Every structure is written in structure tokens, then in C-alpha cells.
Predict the structure.
Amino acid sequence: MGGAGTGRAVELRGVHKFYGPFHALRGVDLAIGKGEVCVAIGPSGSGKSTLLRCINQLEVVSAGRVYLGGELQGYREVGECLHQLSPRQIAAQRRRTGMVFQRFNLFPHMTALQNVIEGPVHVKGLRKREARERGRALLARVGLDGLGDRYPNQLSGGQQQRVAIARALAMEPEVMLFDEPTSALDPELVGEVLDVIKDLARSGMTMMLVTHEIGFAREVGDDVVFMDNGMVVERGKPQDMFAGAREARTQAFLSKVL
Amino acid sequence: MGGSDGDPVVGGSRPDTAETVVFNRVVPRRHPGRWVAVAIILVLAAQAIQGVTTNPNFHWDTYAEYVFSPFVLRGVGWTLILTVVAMAVAIPLAMLLVVMRESGNPILRSASWLWVWFFRGTPVYTQLAFWGLFAVLFPRIALTVPFGPELLSLDSRWIVTPAVAAIVGLSFNESAYLAEIFRAGFRAIDRGQTEAAQSIGMSKGKIWTRILIPQAMRTIIPPTGNETIGMLKMTSLVLAVPFTLDLMFATNAIANRTYLPVPLLLVAATWYLAITSVLMVGQYYLERYYGRGHDDVVVKGGPH
């Protein structure tokens, strides 16, 4: 299979993304090992979110390849050519990743528990009773025991985001993707969401996280990736990068946010 | 009162309990204008009622004679059937048109656009007349291989009966309008909903049925209720087919015989109003059901 890397949960090779004439990603190479937590930081518009969305095929890459667990995403490689996979196959590939969005994107017509069991029941075909049991356990895990019957509009932003995390976890993904999970939250609600993510990192989940919370990046990240202008400028251990970045652009950015 | 002893009120709150709170004594505002308005409206209403009920030109005796006559009741029945069946055909058809319009397939997109363009762009009366003439224009409906042999052939008169022509004409026309209403409803849903559904691996069909349609319903139902009520009255145009059993045709026929159009128009109006009222009750419950998660009403038995 395309000579993909071994043991890597996520691997991107030479990924470019164009929106019309706009060059959003300019040749990104990135690998995340199993159980690693990779945090992407950088100014807005630098391509962090686009990168994340390319991993679970919410965006189709214009050039380059994305591998999950060694499997090429979106295409079958036949000689020199890439053959598009069917929508069904792409949907199946997406199940390897769970995604948490900036604006939660909970289904407003379903209760918290219904949100969590929607995937297991209607995608995986799990029996409803079993799914409910697991869904309640997941809600308890993110600290929402007993709130399963609330609709999203009856929950605070922090609670909604935790339901969204539980919904993603319910599909038992290999990799969790977080797209600025705390950017839409009131400051006093950020902590409860970060705690859940920290917990998840400790449990050995492979994660890629886009965030503006530099302190959190330092605490939870095994690796920090600094992106600017559609490129990975620098990658390193958080303690090293925040103590002294190699690249001038990274230094300039960090001096503004630290 | 905060500063009764002259001290300015500083920040902080006193530990009053529910029993010790002294509530403000508020004298409600008076609204004399409202009472004047009520009086004027009551007088006008009384005059209107008197003008209608005691007026011999309204022929209330004739009205009473025909309002429950079997001939009229049969008309009510057929008008209801036409309305319900035409909407029942138009709604799934419109849904299909929207899915086609939003699909990635350019042929399906264009076909949907053309359908809406044609059926919205031509008068429904003309469409009904053409469906009525179908058996004349195409005496036989045959299943053939294009330019090849005929597999099955049927007489059009037995298939496109006046009732069928009326329902096809009304529902095809309606589907074009509903498609535009539905499309607006789906467009109003945040893109993040589709992305969230994709991110848990849902297929396109599941995303439509589980995520998009239930959410669009909330915005789609009020204008669709409007369209249903419009359809109720649009059924009176089926005389173009000609279909002769609906309520309007029935009351017109009686009026032509008795030379008393006014009481028969009142009979028809009464029934249209009665059916509309029943439809509005149904709409209320539908709105409440699909408003779950938005309006703060608790609805039992929503789809899990």
C-alpha cells in the first residue's frame, strides 16, 4: 500500500490545498506517532484548521497524500494514478478519526445522549440499548453524568463541547482531532473542557489539536508544530520551543502570545 | 429602601431571606386607550353582524337548506381528498427535487431546475386543462423501447381519469413551489451540521434523513401549512380539467339552478374556513414536535 510509514497514526506528505487561487497549504509534511499529542499553533489564517480538516477529508487535498494508520485516505493508488474512493468508503475512513469543532456542532434536535449514540446506532449499527449504556458511561467520563436528557440549548458552552467530545469518542476513533475546541467558550468554561482533553491525552489517545491556549499546548503536547502561511515552520518539544524557538517567525509569534 | 438613613448604597448584598424581602409596591399603569379601542371595535362588529344576519339579500334560509346537503358534503369530501392527495404527492416530489438540486450530479441538478422553472412558470389552470386533455393528446400510454418494439400499451382514458388529471396537475405544480421552500429550509442549516455528521462517518442518505430533514422541518412547516391552505382553495380550479365533484363546483351548480349565488358562496366559504381551521390545529402540533431542542417545550416520543 503506497509505502506508507510504519506505526504512524497520521502521516501527511507534501500536502497542498488551494481554494481557487488561494494557496492555503504549501507542502506540509507531518507525522504523528501512535499515542502522541501534537499541538498546532500559529497565527489565524496560517492553515492549521485546514490541515486538520484534510486529515478527516472534510477538505480534499489538492496535492500530496494523507495516511491514517498507514492507509492512504480518499484514494486507491493504482500505479501512477489515484482512483477516487466511493462516498461509502470515504465515510468508513472517516470513522478512524473523531473531530471536535470550534462551534461544537451538536445536533440541536437531539438530546445530549441522542447526540452521543447517533453514530454508534446509525453508522455502526449497534443496538440501541447497548449504545445508550455506553453513551451514559461516556457522558459520565466527560463529567456530564445525568445530563443526557438535556437538549444542547439547555447546556452551557463548556457542557456542549464536552458532549461533542463524547460524541466523537463514541465512534471509538484511532485519532482525535480538535479544531480550536475552546475558542468559542467563555473564559471560565475553558478549564472544564481542557481537563477532559488532558484526561484523554493521559489515556494514550493519539490527538492533533489546534489551539490558541499556549499554556495548555505546553502542558498537554508531546510535540508542538508552529505553522505560518500554509507551511510548518518549526516543530519541537514544547519546553524547547517555548524556551527558545529556532525560527524568527516562531519567535515573533510567541513573543506576542506568551 | 437602600439609603433610608442617609448612607450612600455601597456594593454588597444583605442576607435577606425569602420571608424578609420587602417587595416593591407597584401600582399598575392604566390603559384607557385600550378600553376606547375595545368599545369602537365592539360597535363596528355589532353593526357588521347585524348588517349581515338581518339582511334578506343573504338568504340565510337557503344557506341553512344547503350547508349540510349531501351534494355539498360530497363536494367537501372530494375537496379534502384532492387537497390531501395532491399535497401527499407534492411533498415527497419536492423533497426529491431538492435532493437532486443539491446533488453533485449536474444532470440531476439541471433536471430539478427545469422542473421548477416549467411548473412555476406556467399557470396552474393551463396545466390542469392539459392534464384533462391528456387522453386526447396521447390516446394510448405504451411502454416501448425507444424507437423499438412496444412492450405494453394501455388506454389513456382508464389511467388519466379526471380525478387523476386533477391530482397530477395540482401536485406537479405544487411540487415546484414546495421545492423552493424546502431548499430555503435546508440552506438555512449551518454547514457545521453536515460536517459533524460526516465526521462520525454518516453516509449522505443518513445525513439527509437523520440530520438535515428533521432540522429543516422546523422552518419548512409554517410555509408548507400556508401552501396546504392555498392548495385547499386551489382545488376549485379543477373545473379546468374538467373535474366536477369538488366543493366549489357543487355550490356553483346549485347556485346556477336556484339563481341564488350569495348563500351558496357562503356555504362554500363556511366549509373552506372549517377545513382551514382543522388544518391549523394539525400544523400547531407539527410545529411543536419539530421545534424540540429549539423552543422550550418537552415533546414525548421524539425519534430517539
